[in-house]
Amino acid sequence: MNRKIRYGMIGGGRGAFIGGVHRIAASIDQQIELVCGAFSSDPQRSKDSGADFFLPPERCYGNFEEMIRTESALPADKRMDFVSIVTPNHLHFPAAKAALEAGFHVLSDKPATFNLAQAKELAQIVKATGKLYGVTYNYTGYPLMRQARQMIEEGKLGEIRKVVVEYPQGWLATMLENTGQKQAAWRVDPAICGAAGCMGDIGTHAINLAEYVTGLHIKELAADLTIFLAKEGRRLEDDGNVLLRFTNGAKGVLHSSQISIGCENNLSLRVYGSLGGIEWSQLDPNTMIVTSLDKPKQIYRTGLGYLGSAAGAATRTPSGHPEGYLEGFANIYRNFANHVRAVINGTQPNPLDMDYPTIEEGVAGMAFIEAVVASSAANAAWTPLDYTPTPRAKYGDASLNSDRGGLS
Amino acid sequence: MNRKIRYGMIGGGRGAFIGGVHRIAASIDQQIELVCGAFSSDPQRSKDSGADFFLPPERCYGNFEEMIRTESALPADKRMDFVSIVTPNHLHFPAAKAALEAGFHVLSDKPATFNLAQAKELAQIVKATGKLYGVTYNYTGYPLMRQARQMIEEGKLGEIRKVVVEYPQGWLATMLENTGQKQAAWRVDPAICGAAGCMGDIGTHAINLAEYVTGLHIKELAADLTIFLAKEGRRLEDDGNVLLRFTNGAKGVLHSSQISIGCENNLSLRVYGSLGGIEWSQLDPNTMIVTSLDKPKQIYRTGLGYLGSAAGAATRTPSGHPEGYLEGFANIYRNFANHVRAVINGTQPNPLDMDYPTIEEGVAGMAFIEAVVASSAANAAWTPLDYTPTPRAKYGDASLNSDRGGLS
Amino acid sequence: MNRKIRYGMIGGGRGAFIGGVHRIAASIDQQIELVCGAFSSDPQRSKDSGADFFLPPERCYGNFEEMIRTESALPADKRMDFVSIVTPNHLHFPAAKAALEAGFHVLSDKPATFNLAQAKELAQIVKATGKLYGVTYNYTGYPLMRQARQMIEEGKLGEIRKVVVEYPQGWLATMLENTGQKQAAWRVDPAICGAAGCMGDIGTHAINLAEYVTGLHIKELAADLTIFLAKEGRRLEDDGNVLLRFTNGAKGVLHSSQISIGCENNLSLRVYGSLGGIEWSQLDPNTMIVTSLDKPKQIYRTGLGYLGSAAGAATRTPSGHPEGYLEGFANIYRNFANHVRAVINGTQPNPLDMDYPTIEEGVAGMAFIEAVVASSAANAAWTPLDYTPTPRAKYGDASLNSDRGGLS
Amino acid sequence: MNRKIRYGMIGGGRGAFIGGVHRIAASIDQQIELVCGAFSSDPQRSKDSGADFFLPPERCYGNFEEMIRTESALPADKRMDFVSIVTPNHLHFPAAKAALEAGFHVLSDKPATFNLAQAKELAQIVKATGKLYGVTYNYTGYPLMRQARQMIEEGKLGEIRKVVVEYPQGWLATMLENTGQKQAAWRVDPAICGAAGCMGDIGTHAINLAEYVTGLHIKELAADLTIFLAKEGRRLEDDGNVLLRFTNGAKGVLHSSQISIGCENNLSLRVYGSLGGIEWSQLDPNTMIVTSLDKPKQIYRTGLGYLGSAAGAATRTPSGHPEGYLEGFANIYRNFANHVRAVINGTQPNPLDMDYPTIEEGVAGMAFIEAVVASSAANAAWTPLDYTPTPRAKYGDASLNSDRGGLS
């Protein structure tokens, strides 16, 4: 097959934030092509949005059902290959379900669904349809997070003991949702974004990253969530502190916030094992500190020759040419599209391309959100995560991948 | 009175760590003089240690009882003015009690005592004797921590909402205590250091600093402590994660560790209020980030003219000439000695000199240690702190100081 | 016109570095389309390279003359709008000349030409043809460099006094060019890259950035260039230190290196005026320190609301979502393509879109290279730059733009 | 000898800056005692200053001649052992000469003298009297600068190629000297501070540090000095940029400034050799980056076990307890006093104690100042340094020390 992979977008019309990010991420490597979209529930707005990307009006739909139905009827050489779902959370499940059942692969923004029950149902649908499903826990796309995962898989850090993961922001320190700011408005509305605010929007990214890098799962957690602007009318937590216990006995802490003034998007991860540790901050994503017993700390930098295969495959520029958020996001798109291409071609995918979050992570993410909300409601009682993780393949062990559809 | 303030040291003989720190801290400003010591329970070792500082053998005692008895009998113009206690924890209380009751002021290393009951008893003794008592929660001596306290007192950050305080170290990631390392050995022995390991050694510093800066107190906490090297024989926790609830409704998290490889002495504090925040790390103590709504972050630096009176009074060099751990520690000594001098002279102390930790903080520290241990034993159950804080004076409000003996 | 801007690429076949960067930069905003290329002088290699981007073989040419001739003959609705030149330096001029004279706009990699005489001739050709010409001094595309320029234009820093600009790298600390590394080989060959090595490859970027941000020009310079690996056979300087004197009396220093081991691509710029300064490093491009008299330093961050219009227009993601090298590069492409679109549409371009380097900067860059080489040959004698700068428009002064074709 | 080393201070009365620094530096290790002083040319002010340190009035002199004469007449068990000279520059030479010739060792603030001729004469006096002479180029006292020197001596960085040394400040960006600020006033007065302003005050520190760490000497330099506030009446340069050529063929650049707003005391040093490099900033003195070919950068930190003997001997606290400016300064005092003690005792000094700047560095410093001024006056003509360096001992090679009185 000598053509670009084609996708249609659900959501992401003018004024949206994450839709634009997805489109850039899809475009960077020039291997993926936007061919249609249901950018808005307002048909004219959908067409206007599509025109921004030079899409013909007939492929700009007023809703995803129409898009899926119409695209399904197109000839194979014109039809989209996958859909990208970038709506607010409450629409993720119905859109994914419809697309998968119509035979389209799906790449969805996170969280996978509105609640855990939907996620589990979606997992069944993915399995039943045999279609590919990815969810953009995009921070796993950073080269150095892949390096960290690979180092931990190879035992470089020894047995993992301690995980500190943070995701503070400050943008909701005031009632921004009352000012007409669209991004703020839906993120604080439980009918649209689900049971959690801060934890569903960003805490879930932090936990996903911690599990991705360590290969561990959370066994139970104790969460103390707070709505600091409750008196002003906010209904979902804008801050949370969580104690974590991992399956192997490791301990950890997560704190995440939307009211920590001056914090932008300060996701950071520190992992310490019996032999060493890693320290990384998303604000400086091309630097990772690697520690070890009795030796100077080392500064690992994106793009250098001493990095492993996973980081290398996720890098586009030489060291010192900073890669950022969009490139990390694009790595998820690249991996997913390459997997789609392999499926279309009937070839074996490159194991490194299967390194993207799947429905497995989608379910885990929803289980986290429900656990953290339940724990907090019970005054930070220890609460297990209500799902059973599937063992994942290691980078060097492609044979395990068949069960889970990938490395992720 | 035109002479140096004189002190005797209990503990701190050759091979000790913190004794040397206290001696440097006392020396820096050339206002305090070491005149005697019970440096070791081995009389010869005590004399040898004293000789390192050119003390005459007759003032190097084999135990603190002998020192206190003998010094009490000296003429007033030769006798020590206060004792500095730098022994392992289990001796803090008897040494302090003996000194106070013999009429000497006391400056003790932290924690104040071996357990909370002793601390409460010591508080009574301090009150009864009317002698000054300080405890070296030395990190409050950093100029920028005083700046932070002053800014928060003045309302610059608004209502405090969130506190993140960390104190990871990595030096006990292996069984260092089995190698003959003296510092490690006593810090992991419950008979010497008390009910807590990591939390008693460093976690208490972190909490003290958080309370000092915010002016808040911890209402209750939920702690998950771990002995990661339990199988190897360690008996006290070498790691802990703690959820914090403050008296005003603020929330927080503390994590502290001795097994986080590569971490040196990484105390850090972040505080966020409704108007702004501060971020500070002890590894770079002359820099503090100050955040505020909708404005660029600011970098506050030790020694510059825009800082307040409290930071200014705690600074010895112009900006860009880094002050460090020893100078911060020396600020506690300077404040305490100036207070002693005022008492001797019968004058009113400078309110800024009263900015040192007293028995109030000593009791709070022990209450924290007992609460954190109890909470963890109850599977991280919420546990209140078993003491009643006394309201403290603000920097600008000297009149309140009479009840507590100072600003601290 | 409701279509993407179309371009053809000269150079940039498989194995090249900068060609891929240009293609990503062109793709990110989905407004520009690669339609043809002369990717290699080997026709088959050109076709193979084109196939990587799904170009039809008939639009993959074996040389730029063929490409320009053939594309010129295509109907207007298919023909490329501009050419992107990404060859080694010695081909920049003939390719640009051919394209311009055939009526195509040109966006060229830097330096503009092989020598200053060519650059001056090219300036005449640009003027004569009336076509747009841009040169990818891409570091001016970073949002915070545009912010710095705007602040200086507005007088926020006062009269500029001191400029420190650095560009150390370490990749040529050994004879990498002897190992088959293609990027190294041509960059050290005077027949291909021109009279300078380090200064032509990266020093010119540094000077361009300094002039861009300050709005000043270099009056004269004194340069000490060194070939540290001369004994091993290297023929062009791999290191240089340069004293700078600017037209307004400001002084500065440039140092650039390819043998500073551990340096990646460490372009940094510091500018100090009578009222304040700015400090910026390309390795952390979303942070700029702003200094002012007697106030705390401020941390300006990409994506925040307090930034000016120029930075805002160059930003794609919210603060805390790091934008990197590719996004900065893409800003040059976006500006250039928007200008092309305005020309095609016959409309007035947005002044902010005219903020890209033109032939003016191309000539300045070549004048710098020749001056620095001449000065060093004369033992660091003061050497003026052999060209006359054209006054440039300020951000707020669009009316001046007609003379120079833009803000840049 | 079982007593403290005794010193008298010349200069450093109330209101001075550097005198207080010297006194703290002398006090930190409790091995040196201030016994007398000529703190001010006003006898009463001298006595008042001495009273601050509890000195008896009879040992507070009105001028250094009186002090030297009177102290010389005291019995050996009371007399000062050395003098510390902390006056403005023009008095360094006469005070040092008088003290040496009266048989006292001398530790002087930098620069050694008012001009090079004096320095050469002083070198003869030092040699003739056989007394010890040190000059407080204090930045060589930082543990990591000693580590860097030791690593370079051991060949860890290979042949040194490139040196970048900076010392920008911003405190004289306005006419501070007109505001009554005493520190500013004398530093801009050529009659008091000598031929250079910025270069004599701080540039000389930078060059000394570069030579100390690399073991190289400057062969010639080309300097461009500027008085940015000349119109306002300033008479000495407040900024300078200098090209450097070292004896081994290494190249370098120095820039130093007093008008770079926001810079505090930003001395930094970068050295690159054929095998690796080091990068260090005085603002974060306990961190040094070590680079090497094809490996991750390493972070060397004060106080850790992998450091060499020289850094180890210069460290007082465990890693993570920041040592600062005063401790680095104290290392010069400690080394010097230990050498004095060895001389008094007639024992062999510890070679590590001989690691302090001597008259050799004093002469080099003055030669630098005169060269830089002469070069700038000749429009940045290459100017050699007018003195002949004596080869210095390596850390591991104590036998060479006899010629130069030390490692330095």
What does this 3D model show about the protein?
Chain A is built from twelve helices and 14 strands. By secondary structure, chain A is α/β, with parallel strands linked by helices. Chain A has a domain at 147-306 and 359-403: Dihydrodipicolinate Reductase, domain 2 (2-Layer Sandwich). Chain A has a nine-stranded mixed sheet with strand order 13-12-11-10-6-9-8-7-14. Chain A has a five-stranded parallel sheet with strand order 2-1-3-4-5, with helices on both faces. In chain A, helix 1 (18-27) crosses helix 11 (325-345), helix 5 runs antiparallel to helix 12 and helix 6 (143-153) packs across helix 9 (198-214). The longest helix of chain A has 21 residues, at 325-345. The two termini of chain A are 26 Å apart. Residues 399-406 of chain A have low confidence and may be disordered. Chain A binds chain B through residues 161-162, 164, 166, 168, 170, 173-174, 222, 224, 226, 228, 239, 241, 243-245, 251-253, 255, 257, 259-263, 270, 272-277, 279, 289, 291-293, 297, 379-380, 382, and chain B through 161-162, 164, 166, 168, 170, 173-174, 222, 224, 226, 228, 239, 241, 243-245, 251-253, 255, 257, 259-263, 270, 272-277, 279, 289, 291-293, 297, 379-380, 382. Strand 13 of chain B pairs antiparallel with strand 13 (297-301) of chain C.
